Amino acid sequence: MLQGGGLPLRQSTTSAFLLENGQAMQADELLNFCRFLLDFGMLLLIWIVQLIIYPSFLHVDSSEFKSWHYRYTGLITIFVAPLMLGQAGCYCLDLFLERHWDTVFNMVMIAIAWLATIVWSIPCHDRMQKNGFDRGVVLRLISTNWIRTIAWTLVFVMDVTLFAASGPSFRAL
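Above: the chain's sequence. Below: its structure in token form.
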């Protein structure tokens, strides 16, 4: 099992939820399962944004860019906001209930991703929404988005590492 920094490995709590097949899922397993799903969702989303969506900005007709960008930002928020807020909520709850080194590590990575979003991504989107297409701003958005891509990838890599170390259970996440 992985352990670092003097923080404890995960242990099951006494609260359990009955599953359809009659087996019980511990409260910590349920929280870890939700974390895993949200982390996987963020991983998929950020790589789609990095490799497909942001580069496609360079191919949108500049006369249509502002209206297209306005529609894009409105629609992508429907997916991004619940994932980001849900992920942050799960990790805050996990950190509040019992501090583990992996939770601290992932919280730091998530904080880096949020900081990059606030410092670079949102201002780039605001500028494009106000001024329209700007190749330099799109390229800055693509390059600075690597910070978020790496951070959210490391979050999921930590999940997979802990899952692999624990066997077929979400107890260790």
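The beta strands are 16-18, 24-26.
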